[in-house]
From TrEMBL:
SUPFAM superfamilies: MFS general substrate transporter, NTF2-like
Name recorded for this polypeptide: Major facilitator superfamily (MFS) profile domain-containing protein
Location(s) in or outside the cell: Membrane
Lipid bilayer topology: Multi-pass membrane protein
GO molecular function, one term: transmembrane transporter activity
């Protein structure tokens, strides 16, 4: 049965006619849907007038080889002019094999001609959205199998839980600390040492994540966190415990920033908010459970030391996920490592750590 590419004679027929013309994937057919004075607006906000320019812009969409889906949100008609607000999407595998997830809301204007048929006068596919923040590229996680992406998310959220857990885990084990290690005058440093390590290095770590390969930084942060946990668990003195807490704090901040960077790189704007919210939820859950877990270990035969050793066990169990399945991404692949290191504000990073230490001493 031949496809009907007739124009609409009533406002209600505009959207069905538009969808039929678009999904013909034929530029000449689609050009017949535009008013002689028609204009199409591209992703950057630039106007394209005339059939040749409009055709060149349409080719970018038709070359995907995908069928568009359209849902009419609103239509306002006055006289011979209609304003249409349409949600549209291209989702699927393009002709070249790439995964496409293009979703937006169009603000279009159609006009009825002297022949009584409606044609597009202004085709504005991205509507009033901020042209700098519209994300029409497919998220990189679409190149990863669903089960592997699920495993990666488990790894990301587990690190967020452990970061929150270690932030507060010392709150309910201070008594056992003192019994084993003594030096009550240094007890406050066990609590603030972790946050001090995190806050003093978080700006530096954020800068490094913006320049260097994120998997290497993420794994290094996990290792640093586990080293700090091991030092805390085996601490023979309060000084060793404090050092371990600071080291774990640095690694914890690196892990947390790694979670956020992985989500920023491997998801698009539409889904990113949910993934980020889950990171915060996991951190908050860990923070709430910290005193509970610490107290449970401290009052058991395992002793308070397993409040920290448990991190090593969990890291060992999930290590294959981090090592084998976590994808690599270099935000600046063409820039030499030497140049990246030279661009880091090392003086500012040192001053930041010094300032944080002074504030902690003053507060203590």
């Amino acid at each position: 049965m031949a496809q009907d590419f007739s124009l609409a004679s009533t406002p209600d027929g505009i959207v069905p006619a538009l969808l039929a013309h678009l999904n013909s994937l034929d530029i000449n057919t689609m050009l017949g849907f535009y008013d002689p004075e028609g204009v199409i607006i591209d992703h950057a906000g630039k106007e394209h007038r005339g059939q040749e320019a409009i055709g060149a812009e349409l080719k970018k969409y038709f070359s995907l080889g995908l069928q568009m889906s359209i849902t009419q949100r609103h239509m306002f008609v006055t006289g011979d002019t209609a304003l249409l607000i349409l949600d549209w999407s291209y989702i699927g595998t393009a002709k070249d094999g790439t995964e496409v997830n293009m979703v937006a809301t169009a603000t279009d204007i159609a006009r009825r001609g002297s022949d009584g048929f409606w044609r597009y006068l202004i085709d504005n596919p991205f509507g009033s959205q901020n042209r700098e923040t519209v994300d029409t590229s497919p998220p990189l996680n679409q190149s990863i199998s669903s089960w592997k992406w699920y495993s990666i998310c488990v790894g990301l959220y587990l690190t967020a839980v452990l970061y929150g857990l270690d932030t507060s885990i010392a709150a309910d084990v201070q008594g056992p600390f003192l019994e084993s290690l003594g030096e009550i005058e240094k007890l406050s440093w066990v609590g603030i040492g972790f946050s001090m390590g995190s806050v003093a290095t978080i700006l530096l770590l954020g800068s490094l994540y913006g320049s260097f390969e994120i998997k290497s930084l993420y794994l290094a942060s996990i290792i640093l966190f586990e080293v700090g946990s091991a030092v805390c668990g085996a601490a023979p003195s309060m000084n060793a415990m404090i050092v371990g807490r600071v080291v774990a704090g640095v690694g914890g901040a690196g892990k947390y920033l790694g979670c956020l960077h992985y989500i920023a790189v491997f998801t698009n704007l539409k889904e990113r908010a949910l993934y980020n919210a889950l990171v915060d939820l996991c951190w908050g859950t860990g923070y709430i459970l910290g005193p509970v877990v610490g107290g449970a270990f401290a009052s058991s035969s395992a002793t308070w030391r397993w409040s920290f050793y448990i991190n090593l066990v969990l890291a060992a169990v999930t290590a294959p996920i981090y090592i084998l399945w976590f994808p690599r991404h270099n935000p600046q692949p063409a820039v030499p490592a030497k140049t990246k290191l030279a661009a880091v504000d090392w003086v500012g990073a040192v001053l930041m750590r010094r300032e944080k230490l002074q504030l902690e001493v003053a507060a203590g």
